[in-house]
Amino acid sequence: MASAARYLGRSALFMARRGPIAIPYRSFSATTPTFASEDPPVPPPPREPRPEELPPVAEYSPDLLTEQERSMYDMLSPEEQEQFNAENRRMVEEFNDPRKRAAAFAEIEKSVNDIEREIPLRFDETRTRKLGFWGEEEDDEFCHVEDADEDFHDDDITSMAHAQLEVHREIREYARIAAWDMPLLSKLAKPFTLPPPTHILRFRYTTYMGESHPAENKIVVELCSQDLTPKYLSEAQRQTFLKLVGPRYNPDTDIVRMSCEKFATRAQNKRYLGDIIDTLIKEAKEGDAFTDVPLDLRHHKPKPKLRFPDSWKMTEERKKQIEARRADRLRQEKERAGIVDGKTVIADAIKILPALNPALKAKATEEREKVAVRVAGKAQKKRLR
Amino acid sequence: MPPRLNLFNARAAVPVLRHPSSNISRPSIVTSIGINRPTSHGLHPGLPSSTRMDKRWNSSASGGDGSERPKGPTEDPLPHVSEEAAEIAKIMNKKCDGTAASPELEQGTPVSEILQRDKEAQKHMPKVMQDQIKSSTGTRSFSTSTRQSQAELHDQGKSVDEQTAAMVANMISQVNQQAEELHPGLKFGPVEPLPKTENFRTRYDSLLEQFTKLLMTDGKLSMAQRNMAFILDHLRTASPPQPNPKRPLLPGPPAPQLPLNPVLYLTLIVDSVAPLLKLRQQKGLVGGGASVQIPVPLALRQRRRTAIRWIIDASDKRRDSHFAQRVAHELVAVAEGRSGVWDKREQQHKLGTASRSNLAGNRR
Amino acid sequence: MVSSFCWSCMTRLRPTPRAVLPPPVAAPRAASFHTSTVRYALPAKKKASLDGPPKFREAKSARMKKKKPVEKSRPPSVGERKALRKRIVLSNPNALEVEGMQDLSSENMVDARLRGSVLGLPVPMLTQLRAVEAFKPKQGWSIFRRPGTVVRRETLELGRFIDGISNEGKDKGRSAKKIVTGVRGSGKTVHLLQAMAMAFTKQWVVFTVPEPQDLVIAHTSYAPLSDDTPHLYVQNDATAAMLSRTVTANEQVLKNLHISQQHPALKSSAKAGMTLEELAKLGIQDPAIAWPVFQALWSELTATSPAPGFDKGFKPRPPMLVTVDGLSHWMKNSEYRSADFDPIHAHDLMFVRHFLSLLKPGSEKPALPNGGLLLYATSASNNPTIYSFEVALKQIAARQAGLNASAPEFPQADPYSKADKRVIDAFDSAKPTIAKEGILELQTLGGLTRDEARGFMEYFARSGLLREKINDAWVGEKWSLAGGGVIGELEKLGRRLRVVN
């Protein structure tokens, strides 16, 4: 090791003694460098007009009001209008008087200065600390406590208890509403009446209980296609209408349903849907009838509803019927001559059939043998003779 | 304590009465264990006894000799039925003078005990019992056949001993009547439980179910059930077996009647070749790390399982193209004594007998 | 930024004098642990290979051990398994003989008192029924002593109808066309069997197609009918098989009938004075002319009067029964391909076309002019789902109920479902113009009534197969379990032996 270090060191020494190596510099471009021209001087910002330089305001009259203000103005009662006019006139007058105007502006200036002095604005930037890759120095967001006052004087409940208390307050508030205000709602209740036959469209609005939601402006319209006949469409035209609406038609319930959330407001969407229906009806009346195209219901998969047959419903009459039938059956059963019992059938067969009963078979063979023996005996006798 | 005799237990003697022929083969039951000790043999319900009766029977059995030995942890510590009945009667009748309601309930009468010590009474004792004592030598006192469904087995031979059955039924009804009188609190008789096969989970016969499950491969139960149906149909339609007298099936209906009840047929076949024991290889009984064989008795289900496995294994050597057909033919071969399963069983039993001596080592 | 340390500068570096560079390392300079000189291991000698010179052209990878061939027993011989599958056993010698079971005869087939009882099939007729393949292997004939069928309401109606056609009377020469449907196991095939048995008792001629599927799965030979009609195909082997079925089953009838028409298609082979049996056997012997022979036979059997020159010994032709079991296989493209390898529709097969054309009413004479019955059954177990066929069946039912085809309630195929027009047209038969010809009907078989079910279960018990007491409660339970008396389910329940203990 030592020797290796030594000889490296020697070569380094040699290199050092040679002195610096001169390296000629050569630029890549041949043209002389030019510099960008200086930015034009920034013109000083226009000075704010002094209060006395402002143009005078025109004499007040209600006609000068904007449209919105005008509508507000029209809603006021005559006395209030009078009061409003007087006030406005006075303000205009004060503005047009240069002395008063200067005083007013001075006063505004002064109050602004006061505020600035009281709450000085600091524009020192808080330096964002660089976090490491693991972000170990990062403040834990969940450690942030609502009230960061360090000195606790033992005279209050904890913040969590405060939160709990807040919950109770909220509950009580709603309880109060339910107890006192909600009964009053019944005064506003109207009895339900069926929608008149002219109202064949049903619009559905959606509210998300005070929360904002992207689908808030969506409107859905439903209509029963049978309602359109015969007032708006003939039967043939209704078929055309159904062909036009396509998969928006549900043949089970005979309802056409469409929705729109194209536009920002509900009213616009509703208007759009209404227009669409108008157009459809118009098209169904006047346009191509599409008689050569059959109504396409492929989009709809009818849901099989399994039900017990109606004849199974248990009514008094049916009960009686069943009882009578049962009694009848019982009677017939009693009258019946022979009830077949599989066990007795087999037992009887065993008693009779020699194929099933070895005892019977043995007896039969025995008898046969007896006969045979007798015959044989006779034969022997004969032979003896 | 000697076993007692009461009227409930008196039925235990009935099979003895009914089976003079079978006494010759298994004669020592009564003498060796006691007259009123019910045995597997005694569970012979050729009579129209209900399940309820069987239960009583069993309870009396546990009381009969249960008192002789120390009771196991799972055994019922309740007293004997008659004692219990007597106690209940005592409570019901509110007789505090110590006399029981009926004398025979107070305590079972130890007839066998009386007979043992009384020579005079022995002379006058029933002929059957005398026969029992005379022929009480030689043969074994236990059955080597698997018999659970004896009810159905002996259904056939009903007419043979109808008279005795009627007599016994009469006795039973009397006892029942007495028992009913003893229990005035019951308005209706106890509900008879449904037969086991009435439950939809156990709708098939237990052997049939076991056989089907053993036929099953890869968890395909419905396939196995189809095979089982084929086998049963084959047993139903094939010509009745020609039994081999050297290898008879268990006693049952005569062979020509077997196809009419394929389930019984199958049960008889399987139970006839079911081995009694298996051989366990046990190490460390003798020195040197050598293992010895020890015969271990098998329970009913285990015995059947072994037999079914043997039958299915033997069927693999057959040449029929269908599995179910192979098994069916093998079953018929077993019924006719042609199958190798019989040899297997004999071999197993021979080995078991030979290795009985190893059991002594086991006890150390 | 380009490095100022450029390549030319590097090259201008003078080479370092040799003296300053370290000498090439020959041996480690550092003191080694050993004082002895370094010695290297001898170069490894090549291993002397054990078996001769190196091998070329051989796999050098590790050799996998070959599996020992498993000892297999001889595979079952050809056709053995199929024979076992198709085996039909009609008798169980172990079952008990049912006392007092009557045989089906021409007298009792109209006897309403026998409803609910089981009528045995006459033993001599069994060969005929086997010939026309009336029995199917999965039916439970094999557990009874001898085959028998239940007399149900539909059977009695059928019996009355067949009796009416055969006997002299106003119904003589009538014909009816029925399509038999029903749920699985409802006895459609057995209904056809009963019809065949009755037809045999009445000396009818019976044509059957027991397995329509066999004609369309490309298992039998096929050929274009003629050069004029290249899109129509005949199946000669299948036709010959049908002729042989017909001849075996109807030998007695066909023997007594003689040729009465001109058969130019057969040229010289059909001679005058030939019996129809001999005529049919021509087709069996030479399947190449099976189709013309079949047509000739058909024209002979549907003849009402002899052609001029054949007047001698003309006998009126008997009524005919035509059955097809499992119709829906004929309602789609077959597995056959045309020369252009396009699928051939089943209706382009002449065999199928002939039997389907019988459903249409005849123009000047009925499809079956001598009277008879067309019974075409659907199958519920081996059954392709064909939408257009379902619609066609609905249309038949509607037409039967008297609905006009132009009525709005008349069931029509969904226009977007690509329904097969040919199928719907095949069943679109107008009301027949000829009085004796019946309209195409749809007959739906349901369950048995409770009384019929009771008779059926009693048959089981009396055969010694069922160890139960056949009382009303028990039958009611099984009747409900069998889906309201579906006979196939009842049979399953009946053959399941239950051992109660």
From TrEMBL, chain A:
Signal peptide as annotated in the record: none
Chain positions covered by the region annotation Disordered: 31-57
InterPro entries named in the record: Ribosomal_mS35_mit, Ribosomal_mS35_mt
Every Small ribosomal subunit protein mS35 mitochondrial conserved domain range: 191-313
GO cellular component: mitochondrial small ribosomal subunit
Domain of life: Eukaryota
Xref: Pfam families: MRP-S28
Alphabetized GO MF terms: structural constituent of ribosome
Any single GO BP term: mitochondrial translation
Name recorded for this polypeptide: Mitochondrial ribosomal subunit protein-domain-containing protein
Organism name: Aspergillus coremiiformis
Automatic annotation (TrEMBL), chain B:
Gene Ontology CC terms: mitochondrion; ribonucleoprotein complex; ribosome
Any GO BP: translation
Cell location: Mitochondrion
Main localization, broad class: mitochondrion
Compositional bias ranges of the Low complexity kind: 135-150
Region ranges (Disordered): 32-79, 126-160, 342-364
Ranges of biased composition (kind: Polar residues): 354-364
Pfam family, one: Ribosomal_S7
Domain of life according to the entry: Eukaryota
Keywords per UniProt: Mitochondrion, Ribonucleoprotein, Ribosomal protein
Biased composition (Basic and acidic residues): 66-79
Residues covered by the Small ribosomal subunit protein uS7 domain: 202-356
PANTHER family: RIBOSOMAL PROTEIN S7 (PTHR11205)
Physiological role: Component of the mitochondrial ribosome (mitoribosome), a dedicated translation machinery responsible for the synthesis of mitochondrial genome-encoded proteins, including at least some of the essential transmembrane subunits of the mitochondrial respiratory chain. The mitoribosomes are attached to the mitochondrial inner membrane and translation products are cotranslationally integrated into the membrane.
Family the UniProt entry places it in: Belongs to the universal ribosomal protein uS7 family.
Record-given protein name: Small ribosomal subunit protein uS7m
UniProtKB/TrEMBL annotation, chain C:
Pfam families (alphabetical): DAP3 (PF10236)
Membrane-traversing stretches: none
Keyword Nucleotide-binding: no
Principal place of residence: mitochondrion
GO CC annotation, single: mitochondrial small ribosomal subunit
Biased composition (Basic and acidic residues): 70-81
Region (Disordered): 48-81
InterPro entries given in the database record: Ribosomal_mS29
Keywords: Mitochondrion, Ribonucleoprotein, Ribosomal protein, Transit peptide
GO molecular function: structural constituent of ribosome
Keyword Magnesium: no
Protein name: Small ribosomal subunit protein mS29
